Amino acid sequence: MRVGTHDDSWWSRAAVYQVYPRSFRDGNGDGLGDLQGVIDGLGHLESLSIDAVWLSPFYPSPQNDSGYDVSDPRAVDPMFGTLDDFARLVDQAHERGLRVIVDIVPNHVSASHSWFVEALSSPAGSPARRRFHFVDGKGEAGELPPNNWESIFGGPAWTRVKEPDGSWGQWYLHLFDHTQPDLNWVNDEVRIDALNTLAFWLDLRVDGFRVDVALGLAKDMTYPDLIDPIGMSQSLRFDLDPGSAEAVERRAALANSAIFDRDEIHDIYRQWRSLLESYGNDKMAVVEAWVAPERASRYVAPDTLHQIFGFDFLVVAWDAKSIRDAIQHGIDAVSAVGAPPTWALSNHDSPRVVTRLGDGPEGLARARALALIAHALPGSVYVYQGEELGLCDVEVPDSARQDPVWFRSAGREKGRDGGRVPLPWSGSQPPYGFTDRADVSLWLPQPEHWESWTVEAEGDDPDSMLNLYRSSLALRRSHSSLASEEIEFWSVDDDELVVFRRGADVVVVANTSDQWLPSPVAGSILVASGPVVAGDAGVEIGPNTTVWLQM
Ligand code: NOJ
């Protein structure tokens, strides 16, 4: 089969590296990651054959949700630097042949955004309130929330405000933390403001956008109760095997629901597409929208946006059938409309892939094997910082946790901090070259055992995860068969193997079992994630190992 992408747009084959700015690298010696740190780290990305860098939010923000609570979407938070730093970053990335994608957070703003501050001091029904979802409560005195919607971070999705005269008043909607009020996208001012934000960053020569909560902007403004409010809010969480009946059911319930994935959302993206095209045909947007495959193509139709994250590998079970299904889903979801599939093993919201697949040597072997599967697939691949080092989730002490999920669930859920710890670059003890300051405590503490997991140490080790990523991502770029749009699954007797051919002459064989297995195909080894022996009798593949074979 061929995947649907029939153009040569840069994103359709890109390897994109996600930078989480607080934790990537400190460039100004204050102990916190920043834009100068990203500039300093561009060489690392170049050595990985990365095509584009996606920056998670670096805008002014109280940091209640690590920057996804934006108080001014058209500026740089001083903790990360200045607009001049950003312009330098874009220049230097472009000079190295790297494109720049920035995050846009259109579903909500921070409670400290001037619009929300104005709304709080304005009366019910005022234009300032109509930029948000301010609604009267139920009950005799409006003391009950307007409906039963739940926040994705846990707890109710409504918070009641004190009116300017000090009395209890209306409720406002927040699908995330109470410091992240949802915007009302029926309001033209909201639409125009987002277009201004896109244009602002396009004028600064960014190449694309990652659209946060892209499935959430439109709401049913009659605010009906949901039948399963907790299930609905949980459906965006990365904790279910995509093939499981529960996951399928949850995703089906999202479709055109009161909160998510409403049909009218695409009017917004059509407007965005026109704006992007007015800047030329090499600007793109990738949407975060975990919807069922039959709904995904709506986000990437020729008149809407360009890519939708394929999230199945974030949750896929470690068995051959689940992996084959995940690949097939990823391709089916977008091919009909000619959009390229995308693959991601981790991101800042998910557990780190090594941890998810079992931690220790086994988790690492499986993560290496899954990476070689993903890097061999047609479409583009998203790499989350630290994934290329094979980092595990860090056991963050409860007293140091920062994620609103931890606070809103009253400690029942640990949240996402374990995968957000500042990166280790060099040296044998914290802060491992992340910052030049030895005396600083980092926003999340690094563990004591990262000495051999730094960029420097792994660079010197031919068998490291880093060198595996360097090899596979370089080959992915240079080998014409891997650049092709063709993929063909081979049916094999052994149900613990995933086997597919790419282009004319590369075959990928993944052994998901704990035993050595013979490869059904012969060939010379291009790259392998673990032990592989090629002899006269054919190719033998070690446990939890993927190999790329040149036929
Ligand atoms: C998705 C982002 O990836 C996540 O980190 C954030 O907490 C929510 N959207 C809210 O913006």
Condensed summary:
The protein has 551 residues and is an alpha/beta fold. It has 18 helices and 19 strands.
Written account of the structure:
The chain is of the alpha/beta class. It folds into 3 domains: 10-107 and 200-359 and 371-459, Glycosidases (TIM Barrel, Alpha-Beta Barrel); 114-173, Oligo-1,6-glucosidase, domain 2 (Alpha-Beta Complex); 465-550, Sandwich (Immunoglobulin-like). It has 18 helices and 19 strands. The strands form 4 sheets. The protein has an 8-stranded parallel beta sheet with strand order 9-8-7-3-2-1-11-10. Strands 12-13-14-19-16 form a 5-stranded antiparallel beta sheet. Strand 13 and strand 14 (506-511) form a beta hairpin. Helix 6 (188-203) packs parallel to helix 9 and helix 14 packs parallel to helix 17 (465-478). The chain is globular and about 85 Å long. 52% of the residues are buried. The chain binds 1-deoxynojirimycin. The site of 1-deoxynojirimycin has 9 residues, from loops.
Q: What is the topological layout?
A:
Layout (H helix, E strand, L loop, with lengths): L14 E5 L1 H4 L10 H6 L1 H6 L4 E4 L27 H13 L3 E6 L9 H7 L13 E2 L22 E5 L5 E6 L14 H16 L4 E4 L17 H6 L10 H10 L10 H13 L6 E4 L5 H4 L10 E2 L3 H4 L4 H16 L6 E3 L8 H4 L3 H16 L4 E5 L19 H5 L46 H5 L5 H14 L1 H4 L3 E3 L7 E6 L3 E6 L5 E2 L5 E5 L3 E4 L2 E4 L3 E6 L1
Parallel strand pairs: 1-2, 1-11, 2-3, 3-7, 7-8, 8-9, 10-11
Antiparallel strand pairs: 4-6, 5-6, 12-13, 13-14, 14-19, 15-18, 16-19, 17-18
The structure holds 1-deoxynojirimycin (NOJ).
